[in-house]
Amino acid sequence: MKKIFVITAILLIANLLTYAQDGKALKVLISVDMEGITGVVNWEDVDREGKDYDLFRKIMTEETNAAIEGALDAGATEIIVRDAHSTARNILPDLLNPKARLIRDWSGEFKSMVEGIDKSFSAVIFIGYHAKAGTEDAVLEHTMSSKNITDISINGISLPEAGINALIVGYYDVPLVFLAGDSSICAQAKQLFGEIEIVAVKSGIGNAAINLHPAVSHEKIKEGVKKALLNINKYKPYKFKPPYKLVVTLKHEEVLEQRSEYPGVKRTGDWELTYENDDLIEVMKAMRHMF
Ligand SMILES: [Zn+2]
Questions:
Q1: Which of 27, 46, 121, 230 is the most exposed, having the fewest neighbouring CB atoms within 10 Å of its CB?
Q2: Do strands 208-211 and 266-267 pair parallel, antiparallel, or not at all (unpaired)?
């Protein structure tokens, strides 16, 4: 009994010492989208006007809580949740774990889905994420705007929203350590980031999807987040080498015409706009004008 207590105490102190390195506490940002939440299969499910929207915003909140619990189990000292879908007013504040603070609505800043990120964070977690536009057998796949955008690439690499957001957090030297969503975005995350903990909560079958039960998703997410944060040194911030070349492929002529007016943007193909800059923040600002 005594021996177990001593061993537990030593392990706890060792963990605390690890987190205290570089003077950083274990501060975690959780960015939550909705298309990749368990059970969601249709645009109606993620739209405020949809009949089942209230059910799925509750599951979205519970899935976020699972990530928070995993982070707390790993010793997280501060947790910020960023609601990152549509109005950014989906997560139910009263049902969210009180240990976390919630960012709602859009500031208009380029950080967008990872609003709040800065160098003080230790790790970032993505919940409810979805595959990039044009992915086969993916649930509600799109990149930023399903209406306007066919593809977004930076330095020749076609990116899902998870890739774009990982570059923004990477700019602040913070690693993305965990992602949950459908099996397609999980595969894309593995391909882009290599070292990342993933949980696939569903798999697309054309427009349909086979889903885990939400309770099973929550358990897997909690364990996955805990595992990732306990091995935080494994993960590297996602970065590209400057200069950055952004290529956005659009769907509509009038949108293309209008977006090409942004300073520095060049039309480089029938449906293609290109913007180049050495500063990643300028690239992200330009991208926001092309949705
Ligand atoms: Zn969304």
A1: 230
A2: unpaired
Domain span holding position 263: 241-291
The reported pTM is 0.91
**Of 142, 213, 218, 289, catalytic:** 142
- The whole-number pLDDT of residue 6 equals 57
For residue 235, the CA-to-ligand 1 centroid distance in Å is 25
What are the strands of the beta sheet with 100-103, ordered from one edge?
100-103, 78-83, 27-32, 123-129, 176-182, 197-205, 208-211
Upper half-sphere CA count for residue 81 (Cβ side, 13 Å): 32
**Mean pLDDT, to the nearest integer, of 128-148?**
94
Helix 280-288 / helix 161-171 crossing angle, nearest 10 deg: 140
What CATH number does residue 220 fall under? 3.40.50.10780
Q: Is 252 a catalytic residue?
A: no
Give per-residue pLDDT as tens, 156-202.
999 999 999 999 999 999 999 999 999 999 999 999 999 999 999 99
| Exposed / middle / buried, residue 79 (Cβ in 10 Å: 0-12, 13-18, 19+) | buried
Q: State how many domains the chain has.
A: 2
- Are the CB atoms for 151 and 133 separated by under 8 Å? yes
